[in-house]
Amino acid sequence: MRQGKYPFVIGFLALPVLLYSVFVIAPYAQAFQLAMTSWRGVGTPKWVGFDNFRRLFEDEAFWKAVQHHGILLLALPLITIAIALYFAFMLNVGGGSRGGERVGVRGSGFYRVVFFFPQVLAVAIIAVLFQMVYRPNESGLINGVLMKLGLDPVFFLIRPNLALWSIIGVLVWQAVGFYVVLFSAGMASIPTEIYEAAEMDGASRVVLFFRVTLPLLWDTLQVAWVYLGIAAFDCFAIVAVLSVDSGGPDGATTVLAVEIYRNAFVYSRYGYASAMGVALFFLTITFAALTLRVSKRESVEY
Amino acid sequence: MGPEMTTKTDRPTPGPGTTRKLTAAAGKGRDRRIKSEVRLFSRLGHVALLAWAVIVIVPVLWTFLASFKNTTEIFSSPWTLPAELRWENWGRAWTEARVGRYFINSVLVVAGGVFGTMLLGSMAAYVLARYKFVGNRLIYYMFVSGLAFPVFLALVPLFFVVKNLGLLDTHIGLVLVYIAYSLPFTVFFLAAFFKTLPTSVAEAGMIDGCSHTRLFFQVMLPMAKPGLISVAIFNIIGQWSQYQLPLVLLPDKDKWVLTQGIAEISVNAGYQADWAGLFAALTMAILPMIIIYAIFQRQIQGGLTAGALK
């Protein structure tokens, strides 16, 4: 067994480790360095210490983006998880028990397939799709109907206080199906006897949901929250493609990823963009650490 | 669990303690109540489910129909059917807007990216999962820690790394970057999978004089097939959907992948007022995914949720 082990191990690891070091580790390490410099892409980067961060804290676009991440961080998981939980419960438990087995409502299989579908589409494609859906005149899917009914068109992406919510709507549209499938898998592993015992005691469906399903699904919910939270810190493709002027109108939908891209590849402020990347990194890490701490509640054994 | 539940429920039947000894009459009354409740609940649920299904299907269906309309029809009413099947919209999108080109580029990049990811990822995962050597854990955590970092942190330096290697605007460069950024999840998932495989088969192979390399390719890989399929699907969907990396690493229009192309067409459609062409391009991007999803629906759901269920 020993013979020839090391050459084999090294041979198998060399290429993956090399690629990973060059394209992943090195750029991450350089990002922290670049964040301390002023660099327009030519010559050697000029060391400026924490100047970029000082500028960052006075940058209105940065704070707007952070604020939007805050909104996304609350709204996206809450709305998505609430809708997905309800649907997953309907699809798995909602139909009552038949022959000792929990069943969902009729057509469960069909709904699961349809709901999950947006997950296989690229976000950039979905963004273009919803540009058409949200169009502000008769050619838009929603406004076309509204105007036929004699109502005023809704300016989904143009009104500053509506634009971000229009984008959240699209994100929820895409995400719900994924979490329905995820929660379904979690619910399937809850023993039928628990439901039966509860029903025997006269528990209504609402009680079943809140007292049985929810506590036993806690771990899965936690995973969902972390996933959606991390998604809330990205949102590049959807904002860059769907919103007016990539993050507009007037910065009303901008997120850090869009600002990083704009600063680096439009304005060639590479050092400043890297500083934003570092800020984004610390926000993400803080979120992940906080979530794990707060949600570390004893999971129910069964 | 049972007794605890009863004290918490707010059902109208009296007193604790009697709950376990239900009389027949009370049982019947409760059954009726539950039945009517079930009916109301599932009716409401049905409406909600149906509404969501409509919300998911309608935008896609509407795009599909609009791809055959002309501009007048598109602006007149969203709900009328096209007067005729105008395939010329599709032709215009395929050639003039170059959807065909972008499509082929995407297929090439994803094919190379997923093949490389699976090959290198399974090799690394296998060695890390089943061989003891100095630095094993270090390398494993190096890969897995990549899951925690946002790609945007690396974006600027990555652009210059690729540029300095002379790989900017090349599909090879994008493929290598895709592989590198797909490794954390692939290694994480497959290492866990390889650990679950029985050691007896590997030992038997070793006794038969099988080399480490042959053992991997001819015995272990076939045994890991279910895990490999899940991760491959995960990577195909992930790399196919990429937008930010190609946007930065492929500035040249000829090299663009589908997501870049469609986003650009959407901008241009505004200038040229060719909405029908945009709808056709959009349909072309969506339709193959519908077909693939319809065929591999079970595997795709399994593959995409595999990571979260671990």
From TrEMBL, chain A:
Domain called ABC transmembrane type-1: residue spans: 66-291
Keywords attached to this entry: Cell membrane, Membrane, Transmembrane, Transmembrane helix, Transport
Transmembrane region(s): 70-89, 110-134, 170-190, 225-244, 270-292
Domain of life: Bacteria
Presence of the UniProt keyword rRNA processing in the record: no
Main location: membrane
Membrane topology of the entry: Multi-pass membrane protein
InterPro entries: ABC_transporter_permease, MetI-like, MetI-like_sf
UniProt key word Transmembrane: yes
Pfam family, one: BPD_transp_1
Record localization: Cell membrane
Family: Belongs to the binding-protein-dependent transport system permease family.
Designated name of the protein: Sugar ABC transporter permease
